[in-house]
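Morning F.,

Quick status update on the modeling queue. The single chain you submitted on Monday has been processed. Sequence for confirmation:
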Amino acid sequence: MDYQTALNFIQECTKFGIKLGLERIGEILRRMGHPEERFRAIHIAGTNGKGSTAVMYEALLREAGFRVGRFTSPHLSTYRERFVVDGELIGQSELAQLVTELQPVLAAVTADGFGSPTEFEVGTALAMQFFARHKVDLAVIEVGMGGRFDATNIIKPLFSVITHIALDHQQYLGDTLEKIAFEKAGIIKPGIPVVIGRQEPAIERYLMEIAESRRSPYRTASAVQVRRFTPGEAGTAVEYAHPRLGDLRLQLGLIGRHQVDNSLNVLAGLDFLETAGIATSPELLRSSLAKVRWPSRFERIEAVAPQKFYLDGAHNPDGVAALVETLQALYPGERVTLLIGILNNRPLPELAALFAQVAANVVTTTVPDPKSADPEELAELFRGLGIASVAEPDPRRALEQVRGSGSGIVVASGSLYLTGLLRSILLNMGDAIDETFNSGRRSVRERQN
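Structure tokens below.
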């Protein structure tokens, strides 16, 4: 099987939709010889900040001298981004080989009555085998959606992390913070430590109560005090008061107050790392977190300088509010040109109202997904808020329009699917063959809808 054939096989699994549960992935991994048991792991759930927290942990562990794997989703430019060891994406030939080996296992599991595997279950199985083959010391594994029945919840980690919880994926996880928190808390396993990220007070108490009921030691991000922080175009300077390390000054490579909150997820987990025999120090924290970069999270594309062009995948109210706050802190009093595309299952009026706080003008476009909101309807929402807005359905032409607008600051946002496409265009990157994968995935979704 070659790389394109492997991608075609994976995308065909999207026709089975989302099936939350652990029985099938458990059986798949059992027949593979339980690769997930051959390395230690940190498991990360939450609504926003999972990926940023994951890459911060990854950077710290690599700086400490460990061989580290990372499994995150979704990808931006290539499916291979989901599988990383020591900063290197899985190769095309290796991914094809792993899929070739996995295919008969999946067929046998299906034939034996466990049902057809979903795309995410296939990806999870591939990640576990990839990390085991490369003999990683540790893997940082991000939940796909929810937590309790997410395929990644099959692992038994050193400890878990629950980042900030907000409303998202409500059709699957529930329509209140409490219901969503219940699903996220499903990764808290009896006796296994958990880091509880910054939350609404009631949600923090709820998660603490669950940890206590399962006799899981916990640390809270709120126990680490942030004395002050200063966001800048090159990162965020932060002064903390840590319960054990005392006064601590760090320069984060990521930008914004929300990234300060994400760094607390790491600082609160230091005790659990120490207990696991992983020594850390202020020096390691300083040298590792300053290097962290995470694509499409307020990422400036230097290739289009002097225009300040940012990509940010904010796609729910909590994420967009964080983006707006970051822009207001970096560029007080300034308004920017926005390139916006959003899926139609999002609260469009609420998101438009948030974006409007920093918008001078808006170009709306189509997200490369069949669930894209109509650009003209989006543009009309912004016009209703008094923001000059035009609809350009073609994302490439929309990109050309904002780049030629003369605006000093441009931000593309609303969907990671959109920012992933724009990033590939701007940086001339991403496997061309993955365009076939993405197109195939879209066509499958179109058949479903």
